[in-house]
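User: Run a structure prediction on this.
Assistant: Running it now.
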Amino acid sequence: MKTDLFNYDLPPELIAQHPPERRELARMMVLHRDSGLIEHKAITDMVDYLHEPDVLVLNNTKVIPARVFGYKAASGGKVELLLLDEPAPGEWKVLIKTSRRPKIGDELDLCSGKAKATMLYDGEQGEAVLKIESERPLLEILDEEGVPPLPPYIARKEQTKEQIAEDKHRYQTVYASEPGAAAAPTAGLHFTPALLAQLNEQGISKAELTLHVGLGTFRPVSAEIITDHEMHHERYVVSKEAAHTIGSAKQAGGRIVAVGSTSVRTLESLPQIQPADGSTNIFIYPPYEFKNVDAILTNFHLPKSTLLMMMSAFADRELMMKAYETAVAEKYRFFSYGDCMLIL
């Protein structure tokens, strides 16, 4: 299957550069897979589409302020890093932006001198691995010095302290609790404590799993044929409590409603709903038979992205492309800070 089948035209002005004034102001397209019906609602209308004993599956990963700045110790040249993953204590996979790439063994001064790094080795696709050391916990220093790792299509002309503070708050779900993500599970950005409480009052249970979102989820597909694209691994945890909640809802006849592609990736990586701790590089594209997911809440995704391919596998490619054409015509807001779609 060719990648071009998942392309569409998007006017740049529809790419959301800022979050809505309040989370609950997001619009929500509702796509019915059985009939092809498309409805235009708001995220607060989600209570009308879920019912007991459905279960809402949320990814509680927490975005760290993973964009950090510093200097090469030897030359004083500027360095910008994006921290992606910590596969071993103190060892970080990173993307490096600098005029001249450091060599193995080179040292960097980071975060106003509060941390130091040594280049261990170069990886693929611009990645590298650094050993980062600091007297205090690195996450504590990142909270002081780091910047939210917003995607490149959010093109801010300036980064004021006030703007950085707002992004630290808004580029994070209200239920985020497990630090480790380099990008937000953006479908969850629309929930407020009040909406979650309202869903709970209606008998809709909630289960939290963790998948630390890396760049692999969002990297564009450059291959002409989608099967030539290789996904990166991302770490996930499904607790005993979460597995029990999801399994009980399923046994009672409820639907598993995955909030975001990361929840989908985790659930579909499991042969059955059970506690698990591992990593996944699952790549979902048409045709694919979903094992565990019955409904999805998702944002609008980039053309030719693995995320759009996943949703096209869930809802049928032609129907999904029609929905995106409709979203453009109705001027929905796209991507991370944009509106959402409920696929039933």
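The chain has two domains: 3-63+171-343, 67-145.
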